[in-house]
Amino acid sequence: MVECPGYVKRGFKSEEEETESVNPWKTMESAPRDGTSILAIIVDNGNESMEVIWWQTYQNGCWSSEGDFELTPTQWMPLPRWPMTSQEEKEIWDNPLIP
């Protein structure tokens, strides 16, 4: 099969994408430490919760959320994208290069 530069295969996912679609949670070692907000699972006194957290760089650095700091998250995933406007959706559907 001849590969064409710039050609996008529709409907096919890489092994990594397929794994992420089944279980999107990742280990904390791979979490961004640049202040990006992420969704994380936090375990506190045996109770699990999901919180939006980010890496704070003060002192030695720690995971923080609104009102809490020095959290111990176990897994993370990127926050979902904001909903698109109707115009943005139309532009995407009208673009043949976007799968």
Quaternary state, please?
single chain
> Structural class, from secondary structure content?
alpha+beta
What's the helix count? 2
Give the averaged pLDDT, no decimals. Answer: 79
Main sheet properties: 6 strands, antiparallel
Helix fraction, binned, reads 10-25%
Amount of beta strand: 25-35%
Question: Could you explain the architecture of this structure?
Answer:
By secondary structure, the chain is α+β, with helices and mostly antiparallel strands. The protein has 2 helices and 6 strands. It has a 6-stranded antiparallel beta sheet with strand order 1-6-2-3-4-5, with no helix packed on it. Strand 3 and strand 4 (62-65) form a beta hairpin. The two termini are 20 Å apart. The mean pLDDT is 79.
Give the helices and strands, then pairings.
Blueprint: H1 15-22, E1 26-27, E2 38-44, E3 47-56, E4 62-65, E5 68-71, E6 73-78, H2 86-93
Antiparallel strand pairs: 1-6, 2-3, 2-6, 3-4, 4-5
Task: Give a brief description.
It is built from two helices and six strands. With 99 residues, it is α+β, with helices and mostly antiparallel strands. Strand 3 (47-56) and strand 4 form a beta hairpin.
Q: What distinguishing features does this structure have?
A:
2 helices, single chain, six-stranded antiparallel sheet, 33% strand, alpha+beta, 99 residues
